[in-house]
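quick one, 171 residues, struct below
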Amino acid sequence: MNRQQKEQAVSELREDLDGVAVVVVTDYCGLDVAKIVELRRQLRAASVDYRVVKNTLAKLAIEGTDMEFLSDHLQGPVALAWSSDDPVAPAKVLSKFIKENEQLEIKAGYLAGKELDLAGIKALAELPSMDELRAKFLSVLNGPAQQFVTVTTQVPKNFLLVIKQKSEQGA
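---
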């Protein structure tokens, strides 16, 4: 890789990481190609970017940003997982994958300017995803309307039941 290619790789990585909510640093050593392909497939399905990076280039890309502390964890074979859409998705997918493939190791993470250790990433993985939160919010909004419809339909129904019972008693 010549100097121009390195500069381009650094600027692309810096651009990709600019404005992301969460970044997770992983050590993929020990995973075979099939498992890495499966991990990438699962991450892609969750709209998570996953890239194997050269440590020196990654350090240059995050230099001067609020995720510069990740430089300490960029040693050995590492890959970065990040998402701009759902801050919980990388932690969820990686934690689930680690349960079946212990060779993958989470080294550190970044969430909105703060460093995350392994316990913090596990806690993040237990949070509901954005889709789950949206569904819960919509059910909260929809609840009163459903109850109103139920109550208003019960009045005519009860009235008709009373009339039916009166007609059966009179007959």
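The chain has a mean pLDDT of 80.
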